[in-house]
């Protein structure tokens, strides 16, 4: 158990069977009353953001999350298969839990998978991934007065707005946080 006074950004804890990660903490202490602590958290199972109020001295159960580097092998239809490169143990994660992450995964990519006890919480992608442009609209001549963008499709099927100078066959960096073009690779 850990005091809510000692919670820090990024810490994980369990309360009422839900697993939370601390995103923000605000503490308010007035003259005669106990300190009120508001904790903005993300539910790691459902992905929802909420704010929970505590008073000083309350305790929560700290959650120890394990992270393991694994290699993405293939898509078997309804799930994605990952392998631990040390033990060669394979795990399957349902596609419905990885809808956003699938847009950035290529076979043989290394990702970090987060576990809580035996439960798979999710995968952590790098900040940016390099993907090959497989389709792009032709550039329109004279359309360069502003930072003009065109549509392009990368090898994973993700559609991205890219600058006019990007052509098919080029490799570009895409931010995994918002799915937007970052730069040439």
Fold and architecture overview:
- It is a single chain.
- With 185 residues, the protein is mainly beta.
- It folds into three domains: 2-62, SH3 type barrels (Roll); 65-124, OB fold (Dihydrolipoamide Acetyltransferase, E2P), CATH 2.40.50; 128-184, Nucleic acid-binding proteins (OB fold (Dihydrolipoamide Acetyltransferase, E2P)), CATH 2.40.50.
- The protein has no helices and 16 strands.
- It has strands spanning 2-3, 12-15, 18-28, 36-43, 49-55, 59-62, 65-75, 79-84, 90-94, 110-116, 119-124, 128-136, 149-154, 159-163, 171-175, 181-184.
- A six-stranded antiparallel beta sheet has the order 1-6-2-3-4-5, with no helix packed on it. It has a five-stranded antiparallel beta sheet with strand order 9-8-7-10-11, with no helix packed on it. Strands 14-13-12-15-16 form a five-stranded antiparallel beta sheet, with no helix packed on it.
- A hairpin with a 5-residue loop joins strand 8 (79-84) and strand 9 (90-94).
- The mean pLDDT is 86.
CATH architectural group of the largest domain: Roll
CATH topology call of the largest domain: SH3 type barrels
Q: Summarize the helix and strand pattern as letters.
A: EEEEEEEEEEEEEEEE
Indicate the percent of residues in helices: under 10%
Gap between N and C termini, in Å?
Answer: 46 Å
- Structural class of the secondary elements? mainly beta
Radius of gyration, taken over Cα atoms and rounded to an integer in Å = 22 Å
